[in-house]
Protein: Phosphoribosylformylglycinamidine synthase subunit PurQ
Amino acid sequence: MATPKVLVLRGPGSNCDQEAHFAFEMAGAFVERMHINRLREDPAQLQRFQILCVPGGFTYGDDVAAGKILATQLANFLGDALRKFRDAEKLILGICNGFQAILKAGLILPPDEDGPLATLGHNDSGKFEDRWIHLRVNPNKCVFLKGLESMHIPVAHGEGKFITRKQWILDGLKQAGQVVLTYSHPNQPEAQYPANPNGSMGAVAGLCDATGRVLGLMPHPERHVLPTQHPQWTRLGLAQEGDGLPLFRNAVEYFAT
Ligand SMILES: NC(=O)CC[C@H](N)C(=O)O
Structure:
């Protein structure tokens, strides 16, 4: 098996980069963490890697809107390198602040003539939501989610409300199989608050691009890779591994030859 190299791209205010590094290493990849300013100095470095991960955090202090400044940097200074990377059939993962950044950079859904199709806004609750939630997984062709049905992992964000410009955009994304992660509740067909922690349209928690190789999600799979990270592991019994680990392993195995 060819071992892929992962670039965990940091910015000022990233705070989940070490966890993302650890998760990809557990899954069997080589991992390097790099500050975006270093990549801007020489964008061609990106092509040394097979997987790009933009981790969670508060880049640029969430100024303007969470992930917006990082998105602008990605689109304006690294746009060509990123398109080349994506078109080489490599993988891109954005977690939480990373999802905000890659979505707002147009890497998941290219904008149309009227502008962006979707964004992530402030939680309906008006506060930071930091707790464990349940996810339903519809992998469709998303490389990262192959074989998964559900996940129990934490969220920690203030701006995770997924909004499309019009309802038909969300309907189209569902039909195309791009809505790959939704918040779930056992008794609600579409999860309502608090199961849906931010009021996302369609209870959307994660979205992939049309190829299935770019995934963005608000919850944190890298915070549940070890079974002991689950808050109830002593009561429920120790699972074999954390629910988030298969997502990283799928990405690594995609490059198996
Ligand atoms: N954990 C995170 O990445 C948080 C994302 C962002 N700072 C928010 O609060 O919405």
Summary: The mean pLDDT is 97.
